[in-house]
Amino acid sequence: MTDNSEVRDHEVRDPEVVELLQQMIRNACVNDGTDASGHEVANANLLRAGLEGSGCDLESYEPLPGRVSLVARIEGSDPGAPALCYLGHTDVVPVNPDTWSRDPFGGELVDGEVWGRGAVDMLNITASMAVAFARLARSDFRPRGTLILAAVADEEALGSHGAGWLTEHAASSVGADYVITESGGVPIETAGGRRLPIMVGEKGSCWCRLRVRGVAGHASAPLRTDNALVTAAEVIGRLAAFKPPASVHDAWRRFVGGMALPPEIGAMLVDPDAIDDFCKSYPDVGLARQTHACTHMTIAPTIIHGGTKLNVIPDQVELDLDVRTLPGQTETEVRSLLGEAIGDLGDKVEILWAHDDPASESPVGTPLWDELDAMVRRFHPGAQSVPYFSAGATDGRFFRRRGAVAYGFGMFSDRLSFEQFLSMFHGDDERVDVESLALSAEMFEALPRSFLA
């Protein structure tokens, strides 16, 4: 879909998907959460250029200037047959280049790995899906059920200008019975053999803002003033120290049950009274962090706004909180726990709500689950699939709420461990190996030939 001599100078199984990923990274479609960011039009145009002339139907949607999502369709011959949607996002989160070993938007190919922001979240999967879709469209592939590729904007700000907008305003274009998005398919070695997780559900997002009040005054005389910034610091400390109770839900139990863990470890991971001790003491910090996130409501202060002038005591400070909820947890429960954490400072704190999006989950044992399980055994002989619950949000939730089955999956090599893979989401030195890109593209091309036949 692109041309890059750098890739041809290396031995890679699928130069096309490597080249496409590199260019998508270099387009730097950075979404900082504001309406004017993202500029996903660059990646949408890149993908459109690779699909034009292939015989598929193409449509672009632009709810705000530059916030473009691309939808491609290979129409099925049977209107009653199930439709499958490949759902990938084209935006990435901001980055601090000073903490990276390489240019985060260089898309460099180094020792068989493509480096750059979005290499695992999730431009790798979007590129693999797009290459596979283009190959199917140019071949003799004539499915009974419709195949859709939705390359959407704004996933990194919870999708209101991307998948959320499409399912609300262009439902006939993206509507599908089954959806595949991020993230899964990274091999995990267990005592019982190799496991590949298929993401079946995800935590909810209850993002909010706290307004902390004080009294303005002259900063040259700070004694006994009511400084909102000082109060906000205390609120942050209390939130950081607060420990919401553990909750072991069915999706987590299924994951633990499929991992062939030593009995004593498995027992701790499904015991609400023991799981906190595991998270504190387990030597692999990445795995402990994910275990904690998948079994607790989490509250993370991420942004602070406040102050008007260097010599003025601030009378108001606002804190943004990333709150993630488990299945069944509601806004009412979030409010209650925040109030418990803030304690006697509550009369100085107002809770403003920006976003409330509950957890969602799809069942296992569906026809698509069976097909993905077959793909696991085809690409990793002897391996087994295992349902996985994600601590992060994906665009799959918009489709679940409209009745679709939505899973997160790709096909990865064993070059990067599951813990390394998870640590690179929104982290430093994000990269993916070229073998995983080739495996994902091959799997995404093979799956519709059996599932939509």
Description:
With 453 residues, the protein is of the alpha+beta class. It folds into 2 domains: 5-190 and 359-451, Zn peptidases (Aminopeptidase), CATH 3.40.630; 204-353, Alpha-Beta Plaits, CATH 3.30.70. Helices cover 34% and strands 21% of the residues. A 6-stranded mixed beta sheet has the order 1-2-6-3-7-19. Strands 10, 11, 13, 15 and 16 form a 5-stranded antiparallel beta sheet that branches. Helix 2 (15-26) packs across helix 4 (123-138), helix 10 (275-281) packs antiparallel against helix 11 (285-295) and helix 13 (367-379) packs across helix 16 (434-451). The longest helix is centred in the last third of the chain and has 18 residues, at 434-451. The mean pLDDT is 94.
How far is the first residue's CA from the last residue's CA? Answer: 26 Å
**Helix share of residues?**
25-40%
Rg, nearest Å: 23 Å
Structural domain tally: 2
CATH homologous superfamily heading of the largest domain: Zn peptidases
Low-confidence stretches: none
Task: Give the count of helical stretches.
Answer: 16
CATH architecture of the largest domain: 3-Layer(aba) Sandwich
Task: Find the count of extended strands (DSSP E, 2+ residues).
Answer: 20
Largest beta sheet, briefly?
6 strands, mixed
Q: Which features would summarize this protein structure in a list?
A:
5-stranded antiparallel β-sheet, alpha+beta, 16 helices, 6-stranded mixed β-sheet, Aminopeptidase, 453 residues, 2 domains, Alpha-Beta Plaits, globular
SSE blueprint and pairings:
Layout: H1 5-8, H2 15-26, H3 41-51, E1 57-61, E2 69-74, E3 84-89, E4 109-110, E5 113-115, H4 123-138, E6 147-152, H5 163-169, H6 171-174, E7 178-181, E8 188-190, E9 193-202, E10 204-205, E11 208-213, E12 217-218, H7 228-241, H8 250-257, H9 263-269, H10 275-281, H11 285-295, E13 298-306, E14 312-313, E15 316-325, H12 331-342, E16 349-353, E17 360-361, H13 367-379, E18 384-390, H14 396-400, E19 405-408, H15 418-423, E20 431-433, H16 434-451
Helix pairs in contact: 2-4, 4-16, 10-11, 13-16
